[in-house]
Amino acid sequence: MLRPGNSISTFKWMGRLALAWAVLCCWPVTAGSGGVFYVAENGDDTSGDGSIAKPWRTITFALDSVPDASTVLVRPGLYNGRIRIRGIFDQGVNVRSEIPYQARLRHTATVITVFENARNITLHGFDIAHAGPGAGGLVVQIQDLGGVTDITLENNILHDSYNNDILKINNGVSNIVVRGNLFYNQQGSDEHIDINSVADVLVEDNIFFNNFAASGRTNNNDTSGYIVIKDSNADDDIYIGARNVTVRRNIFLNWQGSAGANFVLCGEDGQPFYEAFDILVENNLMLGNSSNAIRAPFGVKGCRDVVFRANTVAGDMPGNAFAMRLNREGANPPLDNIFFYNNIWSDPSGSMQDFSDTPVNDTLTVELLNNQYWNAGQALPESPGDLVNPSDDLALLEAAPGLPLQNNIQTPYWIAAQNIFNGGYATIREAFTALAKNYGLPAAASPGIGQALAAQMPVDDLLGLVRGADPDIGALEQGQETFFQDGFEP
Predict the structure, then answer these.
(1) How many beta carbons lie within 10 A of that of residue 263, not counting itself?
(2) pTM
(3) Rounded CA gap, 395 and 453, in Å?
(4) 7-30+165-486, what's its fold?
Protein backbone atom coordinates (compact mmCIF):
# COMPACT_ATOMS: atom_id res chain seq x y z
CA MET A 1 0.00 0.00 0.00
CA LEU A 2 1.23 3.51 -0.78
CA ARG A 3 1.25 5.23 2.59
CA PRO A 4 2.05 8.90 3.15
CA GLY A 5 4.85 8.02 5.52
CA ASN A 6 6.79 5.70 3.24
CA SER A 7 5.96 6.85 -0.27
CA ILE A 8 9.31 8.62 -0.75
CA SER A 9 11.33 5.45 -0.18
CA THR A 10 8.83 3.31 -2.06
CA PHE A 11 9.18 5.37 -5.22
CA LYS A 12 12.76 6.58 -4.87
CA TRP A 13 14.01 4.00 -7.37
CA MET A 14 11.62 5.45 -9.96
CA GLY A 15 13.17 8.84 -9.51
CA ARG A 16 16.68 7.44 -9.92
CA LEU A 17 15.83 5.57 -13.11
CA ALA A 18 13.97 8.54 -14.49
CA LEU A 19 16.91 10.85 -13.81
CA ALA A 20 19.18 8.56 -15.79
CA TRP A 21 16.69 8.47 -18.65
CA ALA A 22 16.41 12.24 -18.74
CA VAL A 23 20.10 12.37 -19.66
CA LEU A 24 20.24 9.34 -21.90
CA CYS A 25 17.07 9.90 -23.93
CA CYS A 26 18.72 12.42 -26.20
CA TRP A 27 21.99 10.53 -26.69
CA PRO A 28 22.80 7.77 -29.18
CA VAL A 29 21.97 4.31 -27.87
CA THR A 30 24.69 1.69 -28.09
CA ALA A 31 23.51 -1.48 -29.78
CA GLY A 32 22.97 -4.50 -27.57
CA SER A 33 25.17 -7.56 -27.72
CA GLY A 34 22.63 -9.30 -29.95
CA GLY A 35 23.52 -7.06 -32.88
CA VAL A 36 21.72 -4.59 -35.14
CA PHE A 37 19.06 -5.59 -37.66
CA TYR A 38 17.06 -3.55 -40.16
CA VAL A 39 13.48 -3.22 -41.32
CA ALA A 40 12.71 -1.13 -44.42
CA GLU A 41 9.71 -0.15 -46.49
CA ASN A 42 11.25 -2.00 -49.46
CA GLY A 43 12.44 -4.95 -47.40
CA ASP A 44 11.40 -8.58 -47.74
CA ASP A 45 10.53 -11.03 -44.96
CA THR A 46 11.23 -14.00 -47.24
CA SER A 47 14.50 -13.13 -48.94
CA GLY A 48 15.84 -10.60 -46.44
CA ASP A 49 18.33 -11.40 -43.70
CA GLY A 50 17.90 -8.27 -41.56
CA SER A 51 21.10 -6.64 -42.81
CA ILE A 52 21.17 -3.07 -44.06
CA ALA A 53 21.63 -4.46 -47.59
CA LYS A 54 18.79 -7.00 -47.28
CA PRO A 55 16.37 -5.68 -44.64
CA TRP A 56 13.16 -7.31 -43.53
CA ARG A 57 9.79 -5.80 -44.39
CA THR A 58 7.95 -5.94 -41.02
CA ILE A 59 8.68 -5.33 -37.38
CA THR A 60 6.74 -8.46 -36.47
CA PHE A 61 8.99 -10.68 -38.58
CA ALA A 62 12.06 -8.98 -37.15
CA LEU A 63 10.96 -9.71 -33.58
CA ASP A 64 10.29 -13.31 -34.56
CA SER A 65 13.84 -13.58 -35.94
CA VAL A 66 16.31 -11.61 -33.80
CA PRO A 67 18.24 -12.91 -30.79
CA ASP A 68 18.01 -11.45 -27.32
CA ALA A 69 19.72 -8.11 -26.66
CA SER A 70 19.26 -6.97 -30.27
CA THR A 71 18.46 -3.57 -31.72
CA VAL A 72 16.00 -3.38 -34.63
CA LEU A 73 16.32 -0.18 -36.66
CA VAL A 74 13.28 0.71 -38.75
CA ARG A 75 14.24 2.84 -41.73
CA PRO A 76 12.18 5.91 -42.73
CA GLY A 77 8.97 5.18 -44.58
CA LEU A 78 5.27 4.42 -44.34
CA TYR A 79 4.36 1.04 -42.83
CA ASN A 80 0.72 0.08 -43.28
CA GLY A 81 -1.00 -2.78 -41.47
CA ARG A 82 -1.18 -4.36 -38.06
CA ILE A 83 2.09 -4.84 -36.18
CA ARG A 84 2.18 -7.72 -33.69
CA ILE A 85 4.71 -7.15 -30.95
CA ARG A 86 5.88 -10.46 -29.55
CA GLY A 87 8.93 -12.33 -28.33
CA ILE A 88 10.20 -13.38 -24.91
CA PHE A 89 13.54 -11.76 -24.16
CA ASP A 90 15.54 -11.85 -20.95
CA GLN A 91 17.84 -8.91 -21.70
CA GLY A 92 15.44 -7.06 -23.96
CA VAL A 93 15.07 -5.97 -27.57
CA ASN A 94 14.94 -2.33 -28.62
CA VAL A 95 12.88 -1.54 -31.74
CA ARG A 96 13.73 1.99 -32.88
CA SER A 97 12.88 4.32 -35.69
CA GLU A 98 16.29 4.79 -37.30
CA ILE A 99 15.58 8.51 -37.65
CA PRO A 100 13.19 9.65 -34.91
CA TYR A 101 9.58 10.07 -36.06
CA GLN A 102 10.41 9.16 -39.69
CA ALA A 103 9.04 5.61 -39.53
CA ARG A 104 5.27 6.13 -39.78
CA LEU A 105 3.07 3.27 -38.57
CA ARG A 106 -0.52 3.30 -39.85
CA HIS A 107 -3.50 0.95 -40.07
CA THR A 108 -7.24 1.06 -40.59
CA ALA A 109 -7.66 -0.78 -37.26
CA THR A 110 -5.40 -1.24 -34.23
CA VAL A 111 -1.91 -0.33 -35.43
CA ILE A 112 0.09 -2.13 -32.73
CA THR A 113 -1.07 -5.08 -30.67
CA VAL A 114 0.86 -6.61 -27.78
CA PHE A 115 -1.30 -9.54 -26.82
CA GLU A 116 0.76 -12.60 -25.88
CA ASN A 117 4.28 -13.95 -25.47
CA ALA A 118 5.89 -10.53 -25.21
CA ARG A 119 8.47 -9.53 -22.62
CA ASN A 120 11.22 -6.92 -22.43
CA ILE A 121 10.49 -5.05 -25.67
CA THR A 122 10.89 -1.30 -26.20
CA LEU A 123 9.36 0.74 -29.04
CA HIS A 124 11.19 4.03 -29.56
CA GLY A 125 10.83 7.02 -31.84
CA PHE A 126 7.84 6.13 -34.06
CA ASP A 127 4.98 8.18 -35.51
CA ILE A 128 1.89 6.04 -34.78
CA ALA A 129 -1.70 6.85 -35.77
CA HIS A 130 -4.82 5.53 -37.47
CA ALA A 131 -4.81 5.75 -41.26
CA GLY A 132 -7.89 7.99 -41.21
CA PRO A 133 -11.65 8.16 -40.59
CA GLY A 134 -13.51 4.86 -40.41
CA ALA A 135 -10.70 3.01 -38.65
CA GLY A 136 -11.34 0.19 -36.21
CA GLY A 137 -10.88 0.72 -32.48
CA LEU A 138 -7.65 1.77 -30.73
CA VAL A 139 -4.26 2.83 -32.04
CA VAL A 140 -2.15 0.74 -29.65
CA GLN A 141 -3.33 -2.01 -27.32
CA ILE A 142 -1.31 -3.88 -24.71
CA GLN A 143 -3.24 -6.66 -22.99
CA ASP A 144 -2.33 -9.96 -21.44
CA LEU A 145 -3.74 -12.88 -23.38
CA GLY A 146 -0.74 -14.89 -22.19
CA GLY A 147 2.70 -13.74 -21.05
CA VAL A 148 2.80 -9.96 -21.61
CA THR A 149 5.04 -7.94 -19.30
CA ASP A 150 7.86 -5.37 -19.31
CA ILE A 151 6.86 -3.37 -22.38
CA THR A 152 8.11 0.19 -22.91
CA LEU A 153 6.80 2.91 -25.23
CA GLU A 154 9.35 5.73 -25.39
CA ASN A 155 9.73 8.93 -27.41
CA ASN A 156 6.87 8.15 -29.81
CA ILE A 157 4.23 10.41 -31.35
CA LEU A 158 0.90 8.69 -30.61
CA HIS A 159 -1.97 10.57 -32.16
CA ASP A 160 -5.23 10.71 -34.06
CA SER A 161 -7.36 7.79 -33.09
CA TYR A 162 -10.53 7.82 -35.15
CA ASN A 163 -12.10 5.17 -32.95
CA ASN A 164 -11.66 4.84 -29.18
CA ASP A 165 -8.48 5.29 -27.13
CA ILE A 166 -5.04 6.08 -28.48
CA LEU A 167 -3.40 3.62 -26.04
CA LYS A 168 -5.19 0.93 -24.06
CA ILE A 169 -3.29 -1.01 -21.37
CA ASN A 170 -5.59 -3.68 -19.98
CA ASN A 171 -6.52 -7.18 -18.90
CA GLY A 172 -3.80 -8.17 -16.47
CA VAL A 173 -0.57 -6.85 -17.98
CA SER A 174 2.18 -5.64 -15.67
CA ASN A 175 5.37 -3.59 -15.69
CA ILE A 176 4.49 -1.19 -18.49
CA VAL A 177 6.41 2.06 -19.02
CA VAL A 178 5.04 4.95 -21.10
CA ARG A 179 7.82 7.53 -21.18
CA GLY A 180 8.62 10.66 -23.12
CA ASN A 181 5.83 10.38 -25.70
CA LEU A 182 3.52 12.93 -27.30
CA PHE A 183 -0.25 12.22 -27.22
CA TYR A 184 -3.03 14.11 -28.98
CA ASN A 185 -6.48 13.71 -30.53
CA GLN A 186 -8.42 10.65 -29.43
CA GLN A 187 -11.98 9.94 -30.58
CA GLY A 188 -15.31 10.21 -28.77
CA SER A 189 -15.85 9.28 -25.12
CA ASP A 190 -12.44 7.68 -24.77
CA GLU A 191 -8.96 8.61 -23.59
CA HIS A 192 -5.39 9.12 -24.62
CA ILE A 193 -4.50 6.29 -22.23
CA ASP A 194 -6.89 3.78 -20.66
CA ILE A 195 -5.08 1.95 -17.83
CA ASN A 196 -7.52 -0.81 -17.01
CA SER A 197 -7.17 -3.73 -14.58
CA VAL A 198 -3.37 -3.87 -14.63
CA ALA A 199 -0.43 -3.54 -12.24
CA ASP A 200 2.81 -1.58 -12.07
CA VAL A 201 2.40 1.04 -14.78
CA LEU A 202 4.63 4.11 -15.00
CA VAL A 203 3.52 7.09 -17.11
CA GLU A 204 6.16 9.82 -17.08
CA ASP A 205 7.67 12.68 -19.08
CA ASN A 206 4.86 12.75 -21.66
CA ILE A 207 2.94 15.66 -23.20
CA PHE A 208 -0.86 15.37 -23.46
CA PHE A 209 -3.09 17.79 -25.36
CA ASN A 210 -5.72 17.97 -28.07
CA ASN A 211 -5.68 20.13 -31.18
CA PHE A 212 -8.17 18.65 -33.60
CA ALA A 213 -7.87 21.50 -36.10
CA ALA A 214 -4.17 20.72 -36.52
CA SER A 215 -5.19 17.31 -37.90
CA GLY A 216 -7.96 18.73 -40.08
CA ARG A 217 -10.59 17.45 -37.66
CA THR A 218 -13.55 19.07 -35.93
CA ASN A 219 -13.51 19.58 -32.18
CA ASN A 220 -16.86 18.27 -30.95
CA ASN A 221 -15.98 18.79 -27.27
CA ASP A 222 -17.03 15.20 -26.60
CA THR A 223 -13.81 13.36 -25.82
CA SER A 224 -13.08 11.97 -22.36
CA GLY A 225 -10.01 12.51 -20.21
CA TYR A 226 -6.39 12.20 -21.12
CA ILE A 227 -5.69 9.38 -18.63
CA VAL A 228 -8.11 7.05 -16.84
CA ILE A 229 -7.05 4.41 -14.29
CA LYS A 230 -9.76 1.86 -13.53
CA ASP A 231 -11.03 -1.74 -13.74
CA SER A 232 -13.86 -2.42 -16.15
CA ASN A 233 -13.88 -6.20 -16.15
CA ALA A 234 -13.89 -7.19 -12.44
CA ASP A 235 -12.55 -10.75 -12.09
CA ASP A 236 -12.19 -11.55 -15.78
CA ASP A 237 -8.39 -11.32 -15.35
CA ILE A 238 -5.96 -11.80 -12.47
CA TYR A 239 -6.57 -8.35 -10.97
CA ILE A 240 -9.55 -6.78 -9.28
CA GLY A 241 -8.64 -3.12 -9.35
CA ALA A 242 -5.76 -1.45 -11.15
CA ARG A 243 -2.85 -1.05 -8.74
CA ASN A 244 0.58 0.50 -8.36
CA VAL A 245 0.16 3.10 -11.10
CA THR A 246 2.34 6.22 -11.14
CA VAL A 247 1.60 9.29 -13.27
CA ARG A 248 4.52 11.66 -12.85
CA ARG A 249 6.36 14.48 -14.61
CA ASN A 250 3.83 14.94 -17.40
CA ILE A 251 2.42 18.09 -19.00
CA PHE A 252 -1.32 18.39 -19.70
CA LEU A 253 -2.75 21.29 -21.71
CA ASN A 254 -5.27 22.58 -24.27
CA TRP A 255 -8.44 20.90 -23.09
CA GLN A 256 -10.91 20.24 -25.93
CA GLY A 257 -12.95 17.47 -24.34
CA SER A 258 -16.25 16.96 -22.60
CA ALA A 259 -17.27 19.30 -19.81
CA GLY A 260 -17.73 16.17 -17.68
CA ALA A 261 -14.18 14.79 -17.98
CA ASN A 262 -10.73 15.28 -16.41
CA PHE A 263 -7.07 15.45 -17.30
CA VAL A 264 -6.54 12.45 -14.98
CA LEU A 265 -9.32 10.29 -13.56
CA CYS A 266 -9.08 7.33 -11.16
CA GLY A 267 -12.13 5.06 -11.42
CA GLU A 268 -15.02 5.44 -13.82
CA ASP A 269 -17.34 2.45 -14.17
CA GLY A 270 -19.35 2.36 -10.93
CA GLN A 271 -18.00 -1.03 -9.87
CA PRO A 272 -18.78 -2.48 -6.40
CA PHE A 273 -15.04 -2.72 -5.58
CA TYR A 274 -12.14 -0.27 -5.56
CA GLU A 275 -11.41 0.23 -9.25
CA ALA A 276 -7.90 1.55 -8.52
CA PHE A 277 -5.61 1.74 -5.51
CA ASP A 278 -2.01 2.60 -4.66
CA ILE A 279 -1.99 5.44 -7.18
CA LEU A 280 0.64 8.21 -7.20
CA VAL A 281 0.14 11.41 -9.22
CA GLU A 282 3.10 13.75 -8.76
CA ASN A 283 5.19 16.46 -10.41
CA ASN A 284 2.70 17.10 -13.21
CA LEU A 285 2.00 20.46 -14.85
CA MET A 286 -1.68 20.99 -15.73
CA LEU A 287 -2.34 24.11 -17.80
CA GLY A 288 -5.71 25.78 -18.13
CA ASN A 289 -4.99 27.54 -21.42
CA SER A 290 -8.27 26.53 -23.09
CA SER A 291 -11.68 28.20 -22.99
CA ASN A 292 -13.39 24.78 -23.11
CA ALA A 293 -15.05 23.65 -19.87
CA ILE A 294 -13.48 20.81 -17.87
CA ARG A 295 -15.11 18.89 -14.99
CA ALA A 296 -11.98 19.19 -12.85
CA PRO A 297 -8.31 18.61 -13.65
CA PHE A 298 -8.19 15.60 -11.30
CA GLY A 299 -10.94 13.16 -10.39
CA VAL A 300 -11.35 10.09 -8.20
CA LYS A 301 -14.36 7.76 -8.22
CA GLY A 302 -14.56 4.70 -6.02
CA CYS A 303 -10.81 4.31 -5.37
CA ARG A 304 -8.52 4.20 -2.35
CA ASP A 305 -4.95 5.07 -1.42
CA VAL A 306 -4.36 7.86 -3.91
CA VAL A 307 -1.65 10.50 -3.46
CA PHE A 308 -1.70 13.74 -5.48
CA ARG A 309 1.42 15.76 -4.65
CA ALA A 310 3.84 18.37 -6.00
CA ASN A 311 1.64 19.16 -9.00
CA THR A 312 1.10 22.59 -10.49
CA VAL A 313 -2.43 23.33 -11.72
CA ALA A 314 -2.52 26.78 -13.26
CA GLY A 315 -4.54 28.98 -15.58
CA ASP A 316 -8.19 29.67 -16.15
CA MET A 317 -9.99 26.33 -15.65
CA PRO A 318 -13.56 27.03 -16.76
CA GLY A 319 -15.96 24.35 -15.64
CA ASN A 320 -17.15 22.89 -12.38
CA ALA A 321 -14.21 22.57 -10.00
CA PHE A 322 -10.77 24.14 -10.25
CA ALA A 323 -8.91 21.41 -8.37
CA MET A 324 -10.67 18.08 -7.95
CA ARG A 325 -13.78 15.96 -8.04
CA LEU A 326 -14.05 13.16 -5.46
CA ASN A 327 -17.19 11.08 -5.70
CA ARG A 328 -18.66 7.64 -6.13
CA GLU A 329 -21.02 6.42 -8.81
CA GLY A 330 -23.12 3.32 -9.29
CA ALA A 331 -22.09 0.62 -6.83
CA ASN A 332 -18.78 2.28 -5.83
CA PRO A 333 -17.60 1.93 -2.23
CA PRO A 334 -16.71 5.21 -0.51
CA LEU A 335 -13.33 6.67 -1.41
CA ASP A 336 -10.65 6.23 1.24
CA ASN A 337 -7.17 7.58 1.92
CA ILE A 338 -7.00 10.38 -0.63
CA PHE A 339 -4.09 12.78 -0.02
CA PHE A 340 -3.13 16.18 -1.48
CA TYR A 341 0.30 17.58 -0.56
CA ASN A 342 2.51 20.42 -1.81
CA ASN A 343 0.45 21.33 -4.87
CA ILE A 344 -0.01 24.73 -6.49
CA TRP A 345 -3.56 25.68 -7.53
CA SER A 346 -3.32 29.07 -9.21
CA ASP A 347 -5.92 31.02 -11.16
CA PRO A 348 -4.35 34.29 -12.34
CA SER A 349 -7.71 35.47 -13.71
CA GLY A 350 -9.41 35.39 -10.31
CA SER A 351 -12.27 33.33 -11.73
CA MET A 352 -11.95 30.37 -9.36
CA GLN A 353 -15.53 30.01 -8.09
CA ASP A 354 -15.53 26.38 -6.99
CA PHE A 355 -12.46 24.66 -5.58
CA SER A 356 -13.76 21.09 -5.35
CA ASP A 357 -16.74 18.92 -6.16
CA THR A 358 -16.68 16.55 -3.19
CA PRO A 359 -19.97 15.24 -1.80
CA VAL A 360 -19.61 14.88 1.97
CA ASN A 361 -20.73 11.24 2.16
CA ASP A 362 -18.63 9.88 -0.70
CA THR A 363 -15.16 9.89 0.93
CA LEU A 364 -14.09 8.33 4.22
CA THR A 365 -10.60 9.85 4.60
CA VAL A 366 -9.07 12.79 2.76
CA GLU A 367 -6.18 15.06 3.71
CA LEU A 368 -5.28 18.45 2.25
CA LEU A 369 -1.97 19.74 3.58
CA ASN A 370 0.69 22.32 2.71
CA ASN A 371 -0.63 23.46 -0.64
CA GLN A 372 -0.38 26.90 -2.26
CA TYR A 373 -3.52 28.66 -3.50
CA TRP A 374 -4.04 31.78 -5.57
CA ASN A 375 -7.17 33.38 -7.01
CA ALA A 376 -5.63 36.66 -8.20
CA GLY A 377 -6.38 38.31 -4.88
CA GLN A 378 -10.02 37.25 -4.85
CA ALA A 379 -11.31 35.19 -1.94
CA LEU A 380 -10.67 31.48 -2.18
CA PRO A 381 -13.98 29.71 -2.81
CA GLU A 382 -15.55 27.86 0.10
CA SER A 383 -18.58 25.60 -0.17
CA PRO A 384 -20.28 24.13 2.92
CA GLY A 385 -21.79 21.46 0.68
CA ASP A 386 -18.36 20.09 -0.27
CA LEU A 387 -16.14 17.89 1.86
CA VAL A 388 -12.91 19.59 0.71
CA ASN A 389 -12.27 23.32 0.88
CA PRO A 390 -9.04 25.36 1.01
CA SER A 391 -9.72 26.15 4.68
CA ASP A 392 -9.31 22.44 5.46
CA ASP A 393 -5.59 22.81 4.73
CA LEU A 394 -3.93 23.31 8.12
CA ALA A 395 -0.78 24.65 6.42
CA LEU A 396 -2.49 26.68 3.72
CA LEU A 397 -0.34 29.15 1.80
CA GLU A 398 -2.41 31.76 -0.02
CA ALA A 399 0.00 33.64 -2.25
CA ALA A 400 0.78 34.32 -5.91
CA PRO A 401 3.29 31.76 -7.22
CA GLY A 402 4.44 34.15 -9.94
CA LEU A 403 3.80 31.71 -12.77
CA PRO A 404 4.09 33.05 -16.34
CA LEU A 405 0.86 33.92 -18.11
CA GLN A 406 -0.43 31.37 -20.61
CA ASN A 407 -1.00 33.67 -23.55
CA ASN A 408 -0.83 32.05 -26.99
CA ILE A 409 0.54 28.68 -25.96
CA GLN A 410 1.47 26.69 -29.06
CA THR A 411 0.58 23.02 -28.91
CA PRO A 412 3.55 20.99 -30.18
CA TYR A 413 1.77 18.80 -32.74
CA TRP A 414 3.92 17.04 -35.32
CA ILE A 415 4.32 18.67 -38.75
CA ALA A 416 5.56 15.72 -40.80
CA ALA A 417 6.12 17.69 -44.01
CA GLN A 418 8.58 19.94 -42.19
CA ASN A 419 10.01 17.26 -39.89
CA ILE A 420 9.41 19.50 -36.88
CA PHE A 421 6.99 20.04 -34.02
CA ASN A 422 4.77 23.11 -34.00
CA GLY A 423 6.67 25.82 -32.16
CA GLY A 424 9.93 24.90 -33.89
CA TYR A 425 10.95 21.97 -31.68
CA ALA A 426 13.06 19.15 -33.10
CA THR A 427 12.24 16.59 -30.40
CA ILE A 428 9.49 15.80 -27.91
CA ARG A 429 11.89 16.45 -25.06
CA GLU A 430 12.73 19.89 -26.41
CA ALA A 431 9.03 20.78 -26.54
CA PHE A 432 8.53 19.36 -23.02
CA THR A 433 11.37 21.39 -21.54
CA ALA A 434 10.15 24.60 -23.17
CA LEU A 435 6.58 24.14 -21.91
CA ALA A 436 7.82 23.35 -18.41
CA LYS A 437 10.11 26.35 -18.13
CA ASN A 438 7.84 28.80 -19.95
CA TYR A 439 4.67 28.03 -17.98
CA GLY A 440 5.52 26.01 -14.87
CA LEU A 441 8.40 27.84 -13.20
CA PRO A 442 7.40 30.09 -10.25
CA ALA A 443 9.06 33.45 -9.79
CA ALA A 444 12.30 33.45 -7.83
CA ALA A 445 10.58 35.39 -5.04
CA SER A 446 7.53 33.13 -4.89
CA PRO A 447 6.40 32.52 -1.30
CA GLY A 448 6.31 28.78 -2.04
CA ILE A 449 10.06 28.56 -2.56
CA GLY A 450 11.53 26.28 0.10
CA GLN A 451 8.15 25.79 1.77
CA ALA A 452 7.21 22.23 0.75
CA LEU A 453 6.56 19.52 3.30
CA ALA A 454 9.76 17.59 2.60
CA ALA A 455 8.42 14.24 3.79
CA GLN A 456 5.86 14.37 0.99
CA MET A 457 8.02 15.49 -1.93
CA PRO A 458 9.49 13.47 -4.79
CA VAL A 459 13.29 13.39 -4.99
CA ASP A 460 13.17 15.19 -8.34
CA ASP A 461 11.01 17.79 -10.07
CA LEU A 462 9.11 18.06 -13.35
CA LEU A 463 12.34 18.23 -15.38
CA GLY A 464 13.95 15.35 -13.52
CA LEU A 465 16.30 17.55 -11.53
CA VAL A 466 17.10 16.77 -7.93
CA ARG A 467 15.25 18.93 -5.40
CA GLY A 468 17.08 20.69 -2.64
CA ALA A 469 16.93 19.94 1.06
CA ASP A 470 14.20 22.58 1.39
CA PRO A 471 12.08 21.82 -1.67
CA ASP A 472 9.63 24.19 -3.34
CA ILE A 473 5.88 23.70 -3.52
CA GLY A 474 4.69 22.62 -6.96
CA ALA A 475 6.03 20.67 -9.90
CA LEU A 476 9.09 22.72 -10.84
CA GLU A 477 11.93 23.67 -8.50
CA GLN A 478 13.70 27.03 -8.57
CA GLY A 479 17.51 26.84 -8.71
CA GLN A 480 17.69 23.08 -9.11
CA GLU A 481 21.00 21.30 -8.85
CA THR A 482 21.64 19.03 -11.78
CA PHE A 483 21.83 15.35 -11.10
CA PHE A 484 25.27 14.73 -12.63
CA GLN A 485 26.61 14.83 -9.08
CA ASP A 486 24.33 11.86 -8.36
CA GLY A 487 26.26 9.60 -10.69
CA PHE A 488 24.37 10.02 -13.97
CA GLU A 489 26.76 11.23 -16.66
CA PRO A 490 25.95 11.39 -20.38
Answers:
(1) 29
(2) 0.93
(3) 9
(4) Pectate Lyase C-like (2.160.20)
